[in-house]
Amino acid sequence: MLCYNFMHWGCRVGRTSYEVPIRGGALSSAFDMEKWDNTPAPSETAPPSIEETWANLAYFLEKVMPVAEEAGVLLAMHPDDPPIAVLRGYNRIMNTEEDFARLLSINSSRNNGLCLDVSLWGLMGANVPEAIRRHGDRIHFVHFRDVEGTREKYTEVFHDEGMSDHVEASQTPYVAAHERHPS
User: Fold this and answer.
1) d(Cα 107, Cα 114) in Å, to the nearest integer?
2) How far is C-alpha 8 from the geometric centre of its chain's CA atoms?
3) What is the pLDDT of residues 105-148, one digit of tens each?
4) Could you name the CATH architecture of 2-180?
5) Where are the alpha helices (DSSP H) in 49-93?
6) What gap in Å lies between CA 16 and CA 30, rounded to an integer?
7) Cβ density class 48-78: b for 16+ within 10 Å, e for less
8) Among 10, 13, 16, residue whose Cα is nearest residue 34
9) How many alpha carbons fall within 13 Å on the CB side of residue 143?
10) Cα gap 1→116, rounded to integer Å
11) 155/32 Cα distance (integer angstroms)
12) 44-93 confidence digits (pLDDT tens)
């Protein structure tokens, strides 16, 4: 299994601090859009449009998926972090549940799947148990982490302090696609 992302190199994971004190004196990370330098990144060329980014992803999957299938590797797309559609002028395409449905529709291979980052799916507004039921057999990796806040301002916290119910997520059953739609 390979967990990967498709965020533009000019604006990957966004954090405004890695020194936020949380319980017990531990330090954590945070994102705050009000503190984020959202100045477009300097570039000699315009960043790709949303549709160009989707086309790049489709091309990537077209080339990589046959190799992944042959090698038995499952690919799990991680959500944009933070799940915000445009940062520093770069379009980001993995920040809604609809984006993940589109990812799965681009390439129907069972090896094309997703990473269910419980906290980010919650920030995206998804009902995590429902998302598990909908996409269960295409969830190749679960990232159990948690946050407090909104997609524009959040702090990573201990699992028992955040907005997610990790026990419910881990116990949610799903029906495999071949059982939902027998051939």
Assistant:
1) 12
2) 14
3) 999 999 999 999 999 999 999 999 999 999 989 999 999 999 99
4) Alpha-Beta Barrel (3.20)
5) 50-71
6) 6
7) eeeeebbeebeeebeebbeebeeeeebbbbb
8) 16
9) 21
10) 13
11) 9
12) 788 889 999 999 999 999 999 999 999 999 999 999 999 999 999 899 99
Two tokens, residue 63: 């080339």
CA dist 29 and 49 (Å) reads 30
Closest CA to 88 of 134, 116, 47, 45: 47
Handedness of CA 175, 78, 116, 1 (dihedral sign): positive
Beta bridge partners of 32: 153
Are the beta carbons of 31 and 104 closer than 8 angstroms?
Answer: no
Domain boundaries, the chain: 2-180
* 2 CA to centre of own chain: 13
In the chain, which ranges are E strands? 2-4, 17-21, 27-32, 75-77, 86-87, 90-91, 112-117, 139-143, 146-150, 153-157
Give me the residue label for tokens 């002028």: 89
The C-alpha atoms of residue 167 and residue 19 are separated, in whole angstroms, by: 28
Cis peptide before 82 (omega within 30 of 0): yes
